[in-house]
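Batch manifest line 610
LIGAND: fructose -6-phosphate
JOB: complex structure
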Amino acid sequence: MCGIVGYIGPGDSVPILLDGLKRLEYRGYDSAGLAVLNGTGRIELRRSTGKLANLEKVVSQEPLQGSTGIGHTRWATHGPPSEANAHPHRVGGLVLVHNGIIENHMELKKELLGEGRSFSSETDTEVLCHLIDRQSKRGLALPEAVRAALAEVRGTYAIGVMSESEPGLVVGARNGSPLIVGLGADASFLASDVPAVLPYTRDVIFLDDGEVAILSASGVEVTGLEGERRPKTSTRIDWNPVMAERGGYKHFMLKEIHEQPRSFSDTLLGRYSLERGEVEIEGFMLDEGAVGDIEQVVIVACGTSWHAGLIARYWIESLARLPVTVDIASEFRYRDPLVPPGTLFVSITQSGETADTLAAQREARRRGAKTVTICNVVGSTATREADAVIYTHAGPEIGVASTKAFTSQLAALFLLAVRLARGRGTLTNDAARCLLEDLIRIPLRMEEALARAGEIAALARRLAGARDFLYLGRGINFPVALEGALKLKEISYIHAEGYPAGELKHGPIALIDEQVPVVVLAPHDAVYEKVLSNLEEVRARGGRIIAVTDRADESVRARAEAVLDVPATHPLLTPILFALPLQLLAYYVSDLKGCDVDQPRNLAKSVTVE
Ligand code: F6R
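JOB STATUS: finished
ARTIFACT:
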C-alpha cells in the first residue's frame, strides 16, 4: 500500500508533490521519491530510503524544479526498502510510480531480460516500466503505450507515468488499487487518496478499475483499457483534512476493519492455482522434498498474532496431518524448548519487530529449525533473519488494535496449511481446489458481514455500560473468542475473557449474572449442539447471551438476547468471518465510551522491548 501523487500545471511541482506525499505518508513510508520534468526537458529523479524527511533533505541538497512531476511513498512488497527499489523507476526517458502487485512479473522479467533489457531494482514495478517503454519504442503515444503494457500484466495497480518525449502529459491508471484525479483551475493532480489534493482542489474524480486518466494542464480525459472514452463526473469533497486521511472513517481502526475484503484478497493474490489445486508462494523455500521432511510445526507469536497461530493449528493438523504446537513467544524463549530435527518453526508478526518473537525465532534457528515468518512489513528484522518469508501484503496498519493484519495472517496461514498438505499428499487436488474456491470467496462474504455494522453499533449502545464480558467458542472458534475479548479489553478498557465454551462449568460460570454479556460463537459445525448446551447453561444463570452464528435458527433465537449473523462458509474458514463482528463490537463500544480507539492507553503498535 504505497502513496502516489502527480501534478501538471503552471506552478513548481516539487513543493506540491512533497506536500501531497506528506499527506499520504500514512499509507507507507519505508522510502520515497520524486521525478520532475525540468526546464530543459529532462526528467530528474530524487529518491531516498526511510521517512519523507530524508527525501526532503535530498531535495534541499540537490534542488530540482519543474511544472510536471510524479512522486511516491513506498510500502515495500517486492524487494527490501532501498534507494534502488524506491520509486519512481526509470527506463530511458520514461518514469513510473506504482502501488500494487504485478503478479506475473517473474515471467515478464525473464522475457525482457531475454531481449537484452537490464534491471536496476528488485521490484515488480520496474517490469511495467520496461513494458511501457517497449510499447513506446514500437511507436505508440504514451497513453496507448500504457494501455498496451497494462494488457500484458496481471495483478493490481495504480500507476502514474510521464515521459520526456511527451512533456505535456501525466498518465494514471488503476486496477484494484485506489487512484483519484484532482481538478484544479489550471492544473491537474493524481493521487492515491483525497488528502493529497485537498489544499489545491475539492473537485475529484474517483477512477474505477480498468480506467486510464490522461492529465494535462488544461484538463483530464478518462478512457477504458481499450481506449474508449469514459464520461466521468467529479465529486465535491467536504471532508476535513483529518477525516480525509482516514478515507472518511472516524478512526483508522474502523477504516482498517472495512479494508479487510481488499487486504485479504491482496494476501491471496497470485499465490494459488485453482486448476491444479496448488499453492505457490514466492520466497517460500520448501520444495516437495523438504516438505516431506517436516515432522512437526512450532508456531510462535504474541497477542493477536498468537491467536492467528492457534487457528492455524487446526488447519495444519487437519489438512496436513502434522502435529502443531503453538506458543507465546515470551514463554517459548525461556523454557528450553524441544526443537527436534524435522521442526518447521513459524513466527507470526505484523510488525516483524516484536522483541519476544524475534528472540524466539533466533532461539529456534540456533536449535536447528527451519524458520518461516508470516509478516506484514517488508525488510523488517523478522524477515531478514528468517529462512523464508510469507508476506501478508495487508498494507500499513495504523490503528494499534490489529484487525486487517490478523485476517491477512489467517489468509497466509491457510495457504501454508494447504501447501504443506499438498506437499505431504494428505489433500487431493480436488479437495484442495474446493477449499481454495471457498477461500477466495471470503472477501465477498466479508463484505456481507461488514454491511451489518449498523446492527452491531446499535447493540454496542446496549452493552457499553457492562463491566465484564465473557467470550465463548469451541474448537477452531475458541481462538476467535480470545481475539474478541482481547479487542474489547485493549480499546475499551472493559474486562473481558475468552474461554473454550466447554470450560465454562469448570470455573468461569461463577462470574455469570444478569449484568455480564456473554458473546457465544455458534457456527453450524460439528460442535454446534455442544455450543447450544453452553448457551443453556448461561441462560439458566440469567446471563445476557449475544450469539454470533451463520444461521440463526429457532434454538439460537430462543436463547439469545441478540443474534449477530455471519455469512456461511466452509467450517474451517468460519474463524475469519466470525472475527469481524467482534472487531466491530469492540470498536463501537470503545467509541461510545469516548476512548482513544486508535491509540489506546499503555499500548504501542510495535513492542520492540521484552
Ligand atoms: C492486539 C495487537 C497485539 C499484537 C502483538 C504482536 O490488537 O495488535 O496483541 O498482535 O503485539 O505484534 P506483532 O504481530 O507485530 O508481532
